[in-house]
Amino acid sequence: MNRESNLINDEQAVEIFKALSNQIRVNILLMLKEPDNNFSPQAHVIKEKGFDGGVCVSDIHSKVGLSQSTTSQYLSILLQSGLVEMKRIGQWTYYRRNEETIKQFEKYISLKI
């Protein structure tokens, strides 16, 4: 098996590096790493809906202390880079870390940098 078959490509890595170049975005990822410890229980995320660990955007907004538009922009950058996943459940939007992308990025760094 090719060791690099599960690697992200250089272009994807650049997008991830850009996303990680802001301390607030890094903080969001750190908070989402342990959502149960950093956020109140998420009433609308039901395990059967397949989005365990998802946190409502309003809760993320409250924690980061930035305007709603800036918080949404930061989450959009993290989503575009692949570091987070998003799901709408009813009228709420939830985000969680994309652990698969994070593992691929970790492997990319260890093999290429």
From TrEMBL:
Keywords assigned: DNA-binding, Transcription, Transcription regulation
SUPFAM superfamilies: Winged helix' DNA-binding domain (SSF46785)
Protein's UniProt keywords contain Cytoplasm: no
Domain HTH arsR-type, residue spans: 5-113
Organism listed in the record: Solibacillus silvestris (strain StLB046) (Bacillus silvestris)
Keyword Transcription: yes
MF GO annotations: DNA binding; DNA-binding transcription factor activity
Name of this protein: Predicted transcriptional regulator
